[in-house]
Design brief:
Layout (H helix, E strand, L loop, with lengths): L2 E7 L3 E6 L4 E6 L2 E4 L4 E4 L3 H18 L6 E6 L2 E5 L2 E12 L2 H7 L6 E11 L8 E2 L1 H7 L4 H23 L3 E13 L2 E4 L8 E5 L9 H4 L5 H13 L6
Antiparallel strand pairs: 1-2, 2-3, 3-7, 4-5, 6-7, 8-9, 8-11, 9-10, 11-12, 11-13
Helix pairs in contact: 1-6
The structure holds uridine-5'-diphosphate.
Length: 239
């Protein structure tokens, strides 16, 4: 699949069209941003890690009947995907209290939750991704009731597949963010699932193995990302 023309550049990815108008190529960059783009930096190899980690996780989800946009890896940094019309809502699933939930409710990070929590955020940097609920999503027409229900069902199923998968690799899946889109009328998982979009804590040391290392200036970002890749791919493949 030949890479064709440049279509769009986001904070962490570039998108290219292909010969097939239903397919695009996503190229993962090393650029890192946080706090709605106010903090900028770069983590060497991040693009490769996020692309390859996403590929392993998407494959695993597909095996469990969850539709994803992945067609195949093109190379270390690029993935061929189905072209989606993105639903402008981020879906966050939480298994433990961390990040914005800890702040909002005044709870200690790491507090267990009796059951997973699901939240929706409207995708808008200018508005700092405000939290929204079903009523907002339906009233604004961002998704239909059926699409909303499908996103919710898929998000919990994804959690059920990924939580044990990470645990077997010594990582606790604390929380994560998903994006869905429509392809030929069907709700499909898009974007990425990677240390940029998940909180992953090392089971034995409690160390943060994700983007919080960058957000909170904890150092050793590159080492943590590569460690996650190696555990997910199940060996010491080259990066
Ligand atoms: N997240 C993300 N993109 C965003 C906001 C959050 O990938 O724009 C992920 C984040 O990495 C974490 C989860 O969603 O795994 C929950 O994030 P939270 O609401 O705690 O926000 P944060 O404090 O990370 O901004």
């Amino acid at each position: 699949m030949e890479k064709r023309t440049f279509l769009y550049e986001g904070k962490a990815k570039r998108i290219y069209t292909t010969d097939d108008e239903d397919l695009v190529i996503i190229e993962y960059k090393d650029d890192a941003t946080a706090f709605d783009g106010k903090k900028k930096g770069s983590i060497e190899c991040k693009g490769i890690v996020n692309n390859r980690v996403s590929a392993v996780l998407f494959r695993r989800l597909e095996e469990h009947g969850i539709p994803t946009h992945m067609v195949k890896l093109v190379n270390g940094r690029q993935m061929l995907t189905k072209k989606l019309s993105i639903i402008p809502v981020e879906v966050v699933v939480r298994n433990k209290v961390a990040g914005s939930l800890a702040e909002r409710l005044g709870l200690k990070e790491g507090t267990p939750l009796a059951r997973p929590v699901l939240e929706f955020y409207y995708k808008s940097d200018e508005l700092h991704d405000p939290m929204v609920n079903d009523y907002h999503i339906l009233a604004m027409g961002w998704a239909t009731a059926e699409q909303l229900e499908e996103m919710r069902t898929l998000a919990f199923r994804i959690n059920q597949v990924l939580q044990p998968f990470f645990l077997e690799r010594g990582l606790e899946l604390v929380d994560f963010k998903l994006e869905f889109g429509l392809h030929k009328g069907r709700v499909i998982l898009g974007d990425e699932i990677s240390p940029d979009t998940c909180r992953l804590w090392d089971v034995s040391t409690g160390e943060k193995m994700d983007k919080d290392r960058f957000r909170r200036d904890l150092g050793k970002e590159r080492e943590a990302y590569i460690e996650v890749l190696q555990r997910i791919e199940g060996g010491a493949q080259d990066v």
